[in-house]
TrEMBL record:
Keyword Signal: no
InterPro entries (UniProt xref): Fungal_Metabolite_Diox, Phytyl_CoA_dOase-like
Oxidoreductase as UniProt keyword: yes
GO molecular function: dioxygenase activity
Entry superkingdom: Eukaryota
This protein's name: Kanamycin B dioxygenase
Residue ranges, compositional bias (Pro residues): 80-89
Keywords, sorted A to Z: Dioxygenase, Oxidoreductase
Alphabetical list of SUPFAM superfamilies matching this protein: Clavaminate synthase-like (SSF51197)
Length: 259
């Protein structure tokens, strides 16, 4: 679920470092996904081990099978408004902006680091929409409108079951199917709303993405005891801190699988 800035889904060549230098003054209009440098002193033990163990989260086993694969680890922040620029919402979209299986293949885990409310931009969720296919969307992967849901379908779905914007306590675990319709919402408070975002794919799903983590994190992942596959390119601590802002956002992440 790496949410991109509102209305900018499709800027696949822009990195977070470039974006933050050129677009951050207009932050009130955006939901952004700044990456975190994963190094040992950030105390990510619970995030990388406890919350990723399939046996502690039976939903992952029941929906996508044993030994899922973690290939996405990021954050998602809804920024407070500026006087000159009121907050805006994202279009309703699906992160599965490609021809995808009709059965579960990927689950998103969100962990709010502050309590999320409608006031500070908790994610809008359209429950029951995970069964829709790519024909419900406007734009192909890489386009500006990639994954955006067609307006007539939104109206039809709202007549059956409208969206929800829940209050979620700090430290809770929120699971959703990657295909689910959702939208980043405006933050009307003075504080940043931030949550962690992880995606686990079924073991049979051939997603080629890999994490880039500092070597000092390796012992934490070894504690996962083989029940979770984590493809990692290990790099030095110095390189992790130097390059983490060079990661992309939005459509620079490809959740499709290799043919």
């Amino acid at each position: 679920m790496a949410s991109s800035p509102s209305g900018t889904r499709g800027h696949s060549t822009t990195t977070w470092a470039t974006y933050s230098r050129t677009r951050l003054p207009w932050r009130s209009t955006f939901t952004i996904n700044p990456p975190s440098p994963v190094v040992i002193e950030l105390d990510v033990h619970d995030t990388l081990t406890d919350t990723t163990r399939p046996h502690r989260n039976p939903n992952h086993v029941l929906r996508s099978g044993p030994r899922p694969k973690l290939t996405f680890l990021s954050a998602n922040s809804s920024m407070p408004p500026l006087p000159s620029s009121p907050p805006q919402r994202q279009p309703v979209h699906s992160d599965a902006d490609f021809a995808h299986p009709a059965h579960p293949f990927a689950l998103v885990t969100n962990i709010p680091l502050v309590t999320m409310t409608p006031a500070n931009g908790s994610t809008e969720l359209w429950l029951g929409t995970h069964t829709a296919d790519v024909s419900a969307q406007e734009g192909a992967h890489g386009d500006r409108a990639s994954g955006r849901i067609r307006e007539p379908l939104l109206a039809a779905r709202a007549a059956v079951r409208g969206p929800s914007q829940p209050t979620v306590r700090k430290g809770s675990i929120v699971l959703r199917d990657l295909r689910l319709w959702h939208a980043g919402m405006p933050n009307s408070t003075a504080d940043v709303r931030v949550m962690l975002a992880m995606i686990r794919f079924a073991s049979w799903y051939r997603n080629p993405m890999r994490l880039r983590l500092a070597e000092d994190v390796r012992p934490l992942l070894e504690a996962v005891d083989g029940r979770l596959e984590v493809p990692v390119d290990w790099i030095s601590r110095e390189e992790a801190l130097r390059t983490y802002l060079g990661r992309g956002f939005g459509n620079s992440y490809d959740f499709d699988q290799e043919q």
